[in-house]
Request: fold
Amino acid sequence: MNKHSIVFLGLDTHKEFHEVAYCEEQRGASSVHYGRIPTSKVSVKNLIRQFESKYPSATIHVVYEAGYCCYVVAPSLIPKKPGERIKTDRRDTLKLVK
Reply:
C-alpha cells in the first residue's frame, strides 16, 4: 500500500468546508471519498500530514477547481458523461482526482 510514487488529493472548496477525495497512482486505481474537513489552515495541514504518514515515499499532488497554490483544473475540462447534470461536491472531488 505504501509503495506509490504519487497520490492525488482532490479538494472541492467552499467557504466553511472542503470535500476531499484521493487516488493512488496505479492503473485501475479507483478514487476514494475521504470526507469533509473545515477550511482552516490547521485542518488542511493535518490532512496533508495524515497522507504523508500513510504514504511516506509518495509525492502528494493537490488539485482543485480554482485557487492559487495547487494544480488548477478548469471545471469545463473535468470529464463527465453525456446528460450528467447533477452536480454534487462528493462527485466533483472524485472526478478531480481522476
Summary: The longest helix spans residues 41-54.
